[in-house]
Amino acid sequence: MNKKQKVFITGGSGFIGSNLIRHFFNMGFDVINYDIKEPIDKLHKDKWVKGDILDFNKLNDSVQEFNPDYVIHFAARTDLDENKNIIGYDSNINGVKNIVRIINNNKNIKKTIYASSRMVCKIDYVPKNYHDYCPPNLYGESKMIGEKIVRELANHDYVIVRPTSIWGPFFHIPYRTFFDTIKKGKFFLPKGHNPKKSFGFVYNSVFQIEKILFSDKINDEKTIYLTDYPPIELKTWSDLISRRINNNKTREIPVFILKFIASIGDIFSKLGWKSVPLTTFRYNNMITNMVYDTSELETICGQLPYNLEEGVNITVDWMESN
């Protein structure tokens, strides 16, 4: 009997990581979650090793003991709250460096996926190539540095994935807030704006990660955006959510009113409110197209297992049961 393939996942206690743990476990893999935080999915507590990716010795010992075939690195600080010093995002820099060093010295690991972010470029900036960066904040800058570390230091087989805006079961700010705001009847679209967005339902995202992990068709830059295809229209998405929850469509209001509400949100955000429903940053995201080339991803993954409506129904069912 063939031995189980082993997958070592960092950050498996978070949103995408929790779904990755479940996906690979259900596929029959032996899975370990290395994370400083307890899993949000309580069913996976027995697969959790408590550890910080900044603790090189603990991380190295855990990898050596588990002896994985594959590594998926998702551990990171992902909020946008730091605005003073990039050292606040050290997990995204020296944490990545620790992972690279450990895997460089472990020849049994067949492939590693490193999670970056679409925020290595601001939303309205179209990069010329994967080395063209324009981060909008310190979080994006830290992810840019993490990518550069991988490219400069890794001597093993790897792929960098840039998740776009991913949503679904176990999600949190900002897209859980988006769903909750619609549920409360407080979400409005700017009148006359219906941008297209490269967003991703998380069950599709973990399916794509699996396909990428075992593909030999990745581009020479070993980098790929993680998103559903084709891009969705924001109004179509919000209407599906609103109909599923409240049995009505999304309301639209004049742009100047939303701008005013966003400016008030900016004030509350500066005062320390961490889940403001609308800020200028989020308003600009609402009205701006965000579309990425998915041709390579489509070649690797083929048809996605879930369409937009199915993703909305699964997510709302999860919200209602949690």
TrEMBL record:
Name assigned to this protein: NDP-sugar dehydratase or epimerase
Q: Which InterPro entries match?
A: Epimerase_deHydtase, NAD(P)-bd_dom_sf
Species name = Flavobacterium okayamense
Pfam families assigned: Epimerase
Q: Where is the NAD-dependent epimerase/dehydratase domain?
A: 7-170
Per the record, the similarity remark reads: Belongs to the NAD(P)-dependent epimerase/dehydratase family.
Highest taxon in the source lineage: Bacteria
